[in-house]
Specification:
The structure is a single chain. By secondary structure, this protein is α+β, with helices and mostly antiparallel strands. It folds into four domains: 52 residues, no CATH class; 202 residues, 3-hydroxy-3-methylglutaryl-coenzyme A Reductase, Chain A, domain 2 (Alpha-Beta Complex), CATH 3.90.770.10; 114 residues, Alpha-Beta Plaits (2-Layer Sandwich); 51 residues. Helix content is 48%, strand content 18%. It is built from 16 helices and ten strands. It has a four-stranded antiparallel beta sheet. The longest helix has 24 residues. It is globular. The structure holds (R)-mevalonate. (R)-mevalonate binds next to α9 and α13. (R)-mevalonate (MEV) binds next to α9 and α13.
Length: 451
């Protein structure tokens, strides 16, 4: 039998092979190579020109990996209605966001505001010398950093952005001679990673020259040893706030009138408190928020890893990982708020290249980056509200398993007729892996016995 882990079977120089050769070589590690090759190939786009766009996004591509693209209609944010695209493989996420969007659409919708849009980057360097001399020389260095990066920043400045500030940060308490140039940027409608990194690499060379040329520096002071220059994905000042708000009594009742608005609000607030004080729950609570945010961010061709990394760091800003949301029930009002850092773009990167990312942005009415931040944060709050709503009333499994039913049916290779009848049957019965298996066994036996 072929050992699929025997990577020595893949020749050196894999990256130099043609796409078809790479696919063949990869399929060859499977016992049923020809079938695997055909199957993988079937996920390539029939239009070669279109496929080429996807192939060129990354490296060693052999096929595509499909994810569902869903939409949440009628999401009201600041009085404007959006059709929200979501790319996600997990069942229930789009349904939860839709349910929340509908719930809040008759209670004022979602409200959102941008707190700030400042992004950060650092040049980390070692400089051994008289600290005070470096501090004294910094204003002159800063002027050079600003001036000598004009060729990179001119266009961004025309759009209202550019380098906002540069600070010298003394890190010598952690490591002898370790300093940073910590810069902040406004990158307007682009996510800005390339712009920021280009500025930082230019800073690094300006810094080296500056130290070499500086007359009052001597010996080791003439040498700035640059370790690295890179943006920070932690953007606590690129922050968006989104909230829902209504008088508690307008929440209505839940579970066929068994739970009153007051009980719901109290229990919901307690669930938020749990996520605030307990790190185990906070992780799951925030994961649910990123179910929504990531889906929207992915649908618009943005970097969901960057957005998530920033969010989890922000959730730890007090020194303890905690909830990204908070609640206020004062004045008989239910006000539920999510605050997240979010570095997004609507120009450049995949947003322009991926045909579906372009469509998503168009579907959202061609928002600028600030508006997209508010939409993505809303997706997060909608999902989180949906999750807490279920968790504190019916429990999560009832709705989740109903949504998961089709996955289980597909697992058992149910026919279309079996699916239709199963969906009907499980409207009134509890869904579980075993109950679906039993249903199909009984269903198939019945057909065998009675034709
Ligand atoms: C599942 O993907 C997300 C939830 O677990 C989130 C939560 O518990 O808040 C439902």
């Amino acid at each position: 039998m072929t050992d699929t882990n025997d990577i020595s079977r893949i020749a050196n120089g894999f990256s130099k092979l043609s796409k078809a050769e790479k696919l063949k070589a990869t399929a060859s590690i499977f016992p049923d190579a020809a079938r695997v090759e055909a199957e993988m190939n079937s996920f390539n786009h029939p239009d070669a020109a279109r496929q080429k766009i996807f192939d060129e996004f990354s490296e060693n591509t052999i096929t595509n990996y499909y994810f569902p693209y869903g939409v949440v209609p009628n999401v009201i944010i600041n009085g404007k209605s959006y059709m929200m695209p979501m790319v996600i493989e997990e069942s229930s996420v789009v349904a939860a966001a839709s349910k929340s969007a509908k719930f809040w659409s008759t209670r004022g919708g979602f409200h959102a505001e941008i707190v700030d849009t400042r992004k950060l980057g650092q040049v980390h360097f070692i400089w051994n010398g008289d600290k005070q001399k470096l501090i004294d020389a910094f204003p002159a260095l800063k002027a050079e950093l600003m001036e000598q990066t004009q060729h990179i920043t001119a266009n961004m400045q025309k759009r209202g952005g550019g380098i906002l500030d540069v600070e010298l940060v003394d890190m010598t308490a952690y490591e002898p001679g370790y300093y940073q140039l910590k810069a902040s940027f406004e990158t307007c409608d682009s996510m800005g990673a390339n712009f920021i990194n280009s500025c930082l690499e230019e800073f690094a060379s300006i810094l080296r020259n500056f130290c070499e040329d500086r007359e009052d520096f001597s010996g080791s002071e003439k040498q700035a040893d640059v370790i690295m220059s890179i943006l920070s994905n932690y953007t606590p000042d690129c922050l968006v706030r989104v909230w829902v708000e209504c008088p508690i009594e307008e929440l209505g009742s839940f579970e066929d009138g068994k739970i009153t608005a007051d009980e719901f609000a109290r229990k919901f607030a307690m669930a938020v408190k749990v996520a605030t004080v307990d790190t185990y729950r906070a992780t799951t609570h925030n994961k649910g928020i990123y179910n929504g945010i990531d889906s929207l961010v992915l649908a618009t061709g943005n970097d969901f890893r960057a957005v998530e990394a920033a969010g989890h760091t922000y959730a730890s800003r007090s020194g303890k990982y905690s909830s990204l949301t908070y609640i206020d029930l004062s004045n008989n009002t239910f006000k539920y708020v999510l605050e997240v850092p979010m570095a997004l773009g609507v120009v450049g990167g995949l947003t322009a290249l991926h045909p579906m990312a372009r469509r998503s942005i168009e579907m959202l009415g061609n928002p600028d980056a600030r508006e997209l931040m508010m939409i993505a944060a809303t997706a997060g709050l909608a999902n989180n509200f949906g999750a807490l709503h279920s968790l504190t009333t019916s429990g999560i499994q009832k709705g989740h398993m109903k949504m998961h039913l089709l996955n289980i049916l597909n697992h058992f290779e149910a026919s279309e007729t079996e699916k239709v009848d199963a969906v009907e049957y499980f409207k009134h019965n509890k869904v579980s892996f075993n109950s679906v298996r039993s249903f199909l066994i009984a269903y198939r036996e019945n057909i065998l016995n009675h034709g």
